[in-house]
Write a structure and sequence with these properties.
With 297 residues, this protein is α/β, with parallel strands linked by helices. Helices cover 36% and strands 24% of the residues. The chain starts with 5 loop residues before the first strand and ends with a helix. The structure holds 1-O-phosphono-alpha-D-glucopyranose.
Length: 297
C-alpha cells in the first residue's frame, strides 16, 4: 500500500462570506491569533506526515505563495536588530525548498474541479485534501487521525464530525456502515441534503485521503449541487468500485470562512496558548459577563 505523501490545499475561493475583509486579501491569510489560516492547514499536513503540498490557487492569491517564500530583507533586518525570537518563529514556519507546488484553477467551477486541477502534480498515488477554511483544533490535527485510519484500512478516508441534524444542508453528509478501526465504513455520500434526505448527521469536515482514480471521475466535469463540480458526487461514484471509511475527529473544526467560526477559533486558540491565555482570559470573561448583564437587564 502506498503511503500518503502529498496533500492538495484548494485556496482559489473568493471568500464572499467574509466581505469586505476579503476584498483585497485572500481569506486564507486572515489570522487566527497570530498566524494565517493557511498556516494551520500546512502544519496539520506536516504533522500527518505529508511531504509535498499542492496549492490550487486563483487570481489575487499570489500573497499565499509569497508568504511561504523566504524573505531575505526581513531576515537581515531582524538579524541586525538581534530579534532572535522573531527569527525563530520565521524559521519554524519556513517550508523546505521544493516542498510546495502552486497551480491555478482558472474558473470557479467547484471544489471537485479545484482538486482535479492538481491531478498532474499528484500523479498516480493516494493523496490528502485539506480545506483550509476548516481549522482543526484538538490534541492532534484531524488529518493525522484520517491518515492513521487509512494506514489500517487502505481505500479512501473522509474525516467526519456530527452536526445538528437540522443543519445537514450546509455540508456533505455520509451514511454510517460497519465499524472499521476507530471509524466506520461509509455506505453513501450526499452533498448538502435536506434533513429528510440525509443518511445521518455525520458531516464531511474538510479532510480527505483519496485514491488517484478520483481524478478520472472528476475529469468528466459533471455538475451537481449549486451547478458546481462537486467532490462529494465524484466520491459517491468512486464508492461503487472502492471502499470509503469515515474517521471521526476527536477535536473540533472551526469554519473560519464564516464570521462566527472565525471569532470562535480566535478565542479557542488564544485561550489554549500558554503565552496568550493570561493576557486575554480576564478581559474576555469581563466582556462576556457585561454582555450577560446587558441581556438580562
Ligand atoms: C465543502 C464540501 C462539503 C463539506 C464542506 C466542509 O463544501 O463540498 O462536502 O462538508 O466543504 O466545509 P463548501 O463549504 O465548500 O460549500
Amino acid at each position: 500500500m502506498k503511503r500518503v505523501r502529498k496533500a492538495v490545499i484548494p485556496v482559489a475561493g473568493l471568500g464572499t462570506r467574509f466581505l469586505p475583509a476579503t476584498k483585497a486579501m485572500p481569506k486564507e491569510m486572515l489570522t487566527v491569533v497570530d498566524r494565517p489560516v493557511v498556516q494551520y492547514a500546512v502544519d496539520e499536513a506536516r504533522e500527518a506526515g505529508i511531504d509535498h503540498i499542492v496549492f490550487v490557487t486563483g487570481r489575487n492569491k499570489h500573497v499565499i505563495e509569497d508568504y511561504f517564500d523566504v524573505q531575505p530583507e526581513l531576515i537581515a533586518t531582524l538579524s541586525r536588530a538581534g530579534k532572535t525570537g522573531e527569527l525563530a518563529t520565521l524559521d519554524l514556519i519556513q517550508p523546505p525548498a521544493g516542498m510546495m507546488s502552486f497551480t491555478r484553477q482558472q474558473a470557479p467551477l467547484g471544489l471537485g474541479h479545484a482538486v482535479w486541477c492538481a491531478r498532474d502534480i499528484v500523479g498516480d498515488e493516494p493523496f490528502a485534501v485539506l480545506l483550509p477554511d476548516m481549522v482543526s483544533f484538538g490534541e492532534r490535527g484531524c488529518l493525522a487521525g484520517a491518515v492513521e485510519l487509512y494506514d489500517q484500512t487502505g481505500g479512501n478516508v473522509i474525516a467526519v464530525e456530527q452536526c445538528d441534524p437540522l443543519e445537514t444542508a450546509r455540508y456533505g453528509i455520509v451514511g454510517r456502515g460497519n465499524a472499521a478501526g476507530h471509524g466506520f465504513a461509509i455506505t453513501g455520500m450526499v452533498e448538502k441534503p435536506n434533513p429528510a434526505a440525509a443518511p445521518s448527521n455525520y458531516y464531511i469536515n474538510g479532510r480527505y485521503v483519496l485514491q488517484p482514480e478520483i481524478f478520472g471521475i472528476l475529469g468528466r466535469q459533471e455538475r451537481g449541487a449549486g451547478n458546481e463540480i462537486q467532490l462529494t458526487d465524484a466520491m459517491q461514484q468512486l464508492l461503487e468500485d472502492q471502499d470509503f471509511f469515515a474517521s471521526p475527529f476527536e477535536g473540533r473544526m472551526f469554519d473560519c470562512g464564516s464570521r462566527e467560526g472565525f471569532i470562535q477559533a480566535n478565542l479557542a486558540f488564544a485561550l489554549a496558548r500558554d503565552d496568550i491565555r493570561d493576557l486575554v482570559f480576564e478581559p474576555i470573561s469581563e466582556m462576556i459577563s457585561l454582555q450577560k448583564r446587558r441581556c438580562a437587564a
